[in-house]
Amino acid sequence: MRPYEMAVLPLLWSLSLYHLGRWRTAPRRSRVLTAGWTCLALGATLGTPAVRRVVDALIGVNSVTALLVHLLGLTGTAALVEFVREMTGRARGRLSRRNLAALAAGAIVLTTAFALMPRPHGDIDLLTYSRSSWAGYTYWAVLSGYTAYGLLTIARICWIDGRHASPGPARTSLRLMRIATLLGAAYLLHRFGYVTARFAQWPLPDARLITGATQVLLAIMVLLFALAVIWPAHAEHRLKRAAARQADRIAPLWRLL
Fold it and tell me: How far is residue 46's CA from residue 199's CA, in Å, rounded to a whole number?
């Protein structure tokens, strides 16, 4: 398992299982977030080399796990957008029709392009596959486009609401999300720039360097999003512990009274 997988996978599954255990009693925004974490955790698991080989062999389609990972990534991004809308009071109990329509259109085009594009087998990464085609370029353009749409939506909401949020955990959470979206923008520019250069047949460095840098940026972005979501609950837990310690200190005084 690569270092970024070791950092991201346990965290994503911990968050998913923790929230799944509270699914029935959790508020709506927590259920939306749980769906997002679960999709990202499944996608990260399918993306590991050992699992990828097994799934590709079972289904019998070259690189089909790459498509599944990307579809789960799109769904996880959509869920994070809905969570931010819920957290800032913009959703009002309703899913965004524009977000759902963009997700459905992206998934359809992605699947169609995947069926038409040349696909590698074995451990060759789909992103760095040597052949270029319009179907392949469309695939990566749509994947990057929807991810960019999700990140821009989150960044806009966090920027607008972050300016008016009162100092404390909520404002810190929104700021962390803004930083995560900046890293997400760097990740998308890096990946789409590589795809464009590959399609134009420009000279490029070693493919392993490209893939490694892309995955590291992605891992840091996911970790920052996770920290942003965890931070308010962590701050609340610290306040409760501080109050409990203070109550323990004054308990002898109450007994004397």
Answer: 27
Task: Please give the Cα distance from 37 to 43 (Å, whole number).
Answer: 10
Read off the tokens for 132. Answer: 């270029």
Q: What is the pLDDT of residues 47-56, one digit of tens each?
A: 888 888 899 8
Tokens representing 22 are 């509270």
Nearby residues of 149 by Cβ (< 8 Å), 6 or more positions away: 102
In this predicted structure, the answer to whether residue 6 has a pLDDT above a threshold of 70 is no
- pLDDT at site 252: 59
Please state, in angstroms and rounded to a whole number, the distance separating the CA atoms of residues 135 and 6: 33
Mean pLDDT of the chain: 79
End-to-end alpha carbon distance in the chain:
61
Q: What is the pLDDT of residues 136-182, one digit of tens each?
A: 888 888 998 999 998 888 888 888 876 666 677 777 888 888 888 88
Listed in sequence order, the DSSP H helices in the chain are 3-20, 28-46, 49-59, 64-87, 97-116, 134-164, 169-199, 207-256
- Between CA 183 and CA 70 the distance in angstroms is 18
